[in-house]
C-alpha cells in the first residue's frame, strides 16, 4: 500500500520534471577516570528548545529497509539499530569521532584492581512509560542480556561481565573476573541499551514491538514494511528534541528516495547510491554528508556446504574478483578494498593480505580442487540495504563467470533475508558487518568463532580451532601489544582460509535537505536525531 503511494508520488515528480577485555589501554585509561567535566553537556533540559526557538512538526526519513525488532537485546542488524538508538540510551555512547561520552551515566571510575567499574547515573530520568530510570533498571537490562536461557544473539558483547550490583538508586557497580579495559566500548554497543523493567514485565515476548526506553524519541506506531512513527520525548534528560514526530518510511527504490528528497517530500534519505548523490550534490537544497565506517562488506561462503567446503574453491572465489573495479566503477570511490576481515577504523585491524585479481589462478585452483569445468552456485543478496548492493551482486556474477564460476542471483528484502539466513540453507550471501564496539573482538568473534554458527552471526560456518583459540585468548589478554599480535595472526589465518569473499570497506553518505541541522552520523552507521532542527 505504502509502496504504491510512493510510486504514484514518483510518477508525479517525473511528470513535473524535476570487545573485548584488554582494549586500547592508552586511550581507555584517560576515559576510565571520573568524567564529571563531560557530564555538563547533558544537564540542560532546555538546551534544544532554547537553541531552536520552535519545534518542527515532522522529520521524514527514508530508508531502504524495514526494522527487524525493537528489542535492542535481540537486534542483529545495524539498519534496525538506527531506529533503536533513537529510542534507547546506554550508560555511555560513541560520538562522531568514536570517542566515548556520557549517556545515562554521568561519570565513572574503576577500582584499583581493575575489576569493578562504578557508574554514577543521571538523576531524575524517566522511561517513556513514566517509570524511574535507576540502578535497578541497569541491573535488570544487563542480566537479561547475560541470561543464557533467553538466548540474546549479542550476549558475547557483554560476556565479560560477571556481576551487576545496584549500590544505591543512582550508583551501579559492574564487575569482571579479569581486567577489561574495553568495557566502555562494549557498553556503547546497542545490546547494552537500557529497557524499562516495567515494560519487560508488562509485554514479555511482545517487547519487540513495544519498545520503552529513555531516548529522545518514543515509539508510536509501526506498520511493517511501510513506516515507523516516533514522537519527541518532551521530558528527555538532555533536552526535548526540536522535532515533534519522526517518520521512518521504507522506500526500497534508490531513485525514488532520491527524488522524494529532492522534491522536498522527505527530509533525509539513507544509503543513496553514488549515482544519486553525485546528481544531488549540485542541488543547493540538498546536503550530502560523507564519512568513513567500521563496516566491512563481504560474501559469506558457506564453508560447510558442497564445493565451498574446499579451501581452494573459496580462494578461487576471491582471486576471480577485481575489487578495484567494484570500488571505482560501481561505488564511485566510496570504499576501499579489503586487506583484512575488519576495517582500518576498528581497533586491532592489521593489514593481512589482498586477493589481487588473477582469473587464471582462480581457474587453476578450481582445477586442483577437481572442478576443471567450473562450478555453479547461488548468491543471495539484499535489495536496498547496502550501497549499490544490486549492482555489486551483478558485477560479482559477471566477474566470477570469467573464471568458470556460474552464479545465479536470488534477491531478497533485507529482513526476510536475515530471517532465512539463520537456517543456513544457502551457498553464499552478500552482507556487511559493522562492529558497533569499534573493537576487533566484536569485529571477529561473532562472525568467525565456531560457537557462533547461525542463528548467530558466523554465517559462513567457518571453523578453525587455531582461530578459536586466538580469539578466546585475546578476550582475556590485558597486554595491548600481545592482544594486537593475536588479532593480527587470526586475521591473516582467516584471510588465507578464504572464509569469505572479502570485498571492501564502504564509506557512508547521508543525504538531507539543507535546512536540516544537527544530524549525527557515526562510523557505526548509526544516525542520531536528538539534536536535529529544521531551519
Task: Characterise the protein shown here.
This is Glutathione ABC transporter substrate-binding protein. Helix 11 (311-319) packs antiparallel against helix 13 (359-368) and helix 16 packs antiparallel against helix 17 (465-476). It is built from 18 helices and 23 strands. The strands form 6 sheets. Strands 8-9-10-1-11-19-12 form a 7-stranded mixed sheet, with helices on one face. Strands 14-18-13-17-15-16 form a 6-stranded mixed sheet, with helices on both faces. A 4-stranded antiparallel sheet has the order 4-5-7-6. The longest helix has 18 residues, at 480-497. It is of the alpha+beta class and 535 residues long. The chain is globular and about 70 Å long. Residues 1-52 have low confidence and may be disordered. Helices cover 31% and strands 23% of the residues.
Could you give the topology of this structure?
Layout: H1 2-15, H2 25-31, H3 36-39, H4 47-52, E1 56-63, H5 78-85, E2 92-94, E3 100-102, E4 105-110, E5 116-121, H6 135-146, E6 161-168, E7 171-176, H7 183-188, H8 197-203, E8 217-223, E9 227-232, E10 243-250, H9 254-262, E11 268-269, H10 274-280, E12 286-291, E13 296-301, H11 311-319, H12 323-330, E14 335-337, H13 359-368, E15 375-382, H14 389-402, E16 405-412, H15 414-421, E17 428-433, H16 440-448, H17 465-476, H18 480-497, E18 500-506, E19 508-513, E20 516-517, E21 520-521, E22 527-528, E23 533-534
Parallel strand pairs: 1-10, 1-11, 15-16, 15-17
Antiparallel strand pairs: 2-3, 4-5, 5-7, 6-7, 8-9, 9-10, 11-19, 12-19, 13-17, 13-18, 14-18, 20-23, 21-22
